[in-house]
Amino acid sequence: MFRILFVCHGNICRSPMAEFVMRELVRRAGLAEEVAVASRACRTDEIGSDTHAGTRRKLRAEGVPFERRAARLVRREDYERYDVIAAMDEENMRDLLRLTGGDPQGKCHLLLSFAGEEREVADPWYTGNFDATYEDVLRGCRALLAVLEKRLPAGEARA
User: Fold this and answer.
1) Closest CA to 87 of 79, 78, 99, 95
2) What is the mean pLDDT of the chain?
3) Is 123 assigned a catalytic role?
4) How far apart (Å, rounded) are the C-alpha atoms in residues 7 and 9?
5) In a 3-state reduction of DSSP, which class is residue 148?
6) Which residues pair with 107 in a beta bridge?
7) If you placed Cys at 88, which of 2, 8, 31, 60 could pair as Cys (CB 3.0 to 4.6 Å)?
8) Membrane-crossing residues (predicted)?
């Protein structure tokens, strides 16, 4: 099982959006049995909160299934549990580097780096622009899926 973790500041806007988008992309690719996807917060501000209403509206509009959930904090043991940890911005990356002791296994990446872009996914908590965030998340998740499909053994790639 290949495990992906998305992280953002509070785990209510960007990282759950990425979690649900990636789950749907993985399902459509026939990889749901081979790939696990989750999300966490780097900060404690929103722990226990459900996904932001703006994120839920955008996912619904795009036909991406989602479920009720509670924001959770990323922990040191998550570093061992997940194969790839995709951060939404540089602050998240700094938090991950502190938490993991400098990312010795090279698991932490900005989400858009998979799409060849060294930039952040803007936080719609501040911008109010869930459309732009969704487009960035979708671009990053599609690129991550392409990388993942190359990593999986040939027999696991498609059912």
Assistant:
1) 95
2) 94
3) yes
4) 7
5) helix
6) none
7) 8
8) none
- Residue range(s) defining the domain that contains residue 50: 2-157
Q: How far apart are CA 57 and CA 69, in angstroms?
A: 15
Answer for the pair 88, 15: CB distance below 8 angstroms, yes or no. yes
Answer whether 13's CB lies under 8 Å from 42's CB. Answer: no
Contact 95, 42 (CB under 8 A): yes
23-70: per-residue pLDDT in tens? 999 999 999 999 999 999 999 989 999 999 999 999 999 999 999 999
* Whole-number pLDDT of residue 90: 97
Q: Taking the model in full, what pTM does it have?
A: 0.94
- The number of folded domains in the chain is 1
Instruction: Write down the catalytic residue from 13, 14, 89, 95.
Output: 14
The residue annotated as part of the active site, out of 8, 13, 42, 141, is 8
Q: What is the pLDDT of residue 159?
A: 40
Q: Active-site residue among 78, 89, 95, 123?
A: 123
Q: Please say if 94 is a catalytic residue.
A: no
Please determine, for residue 135, whether its predicted confidence score (pLDDT) is greater than 70.
yes
Question: CA 68, CA 51: separation in Å to the nearest integer?
Answer: 7
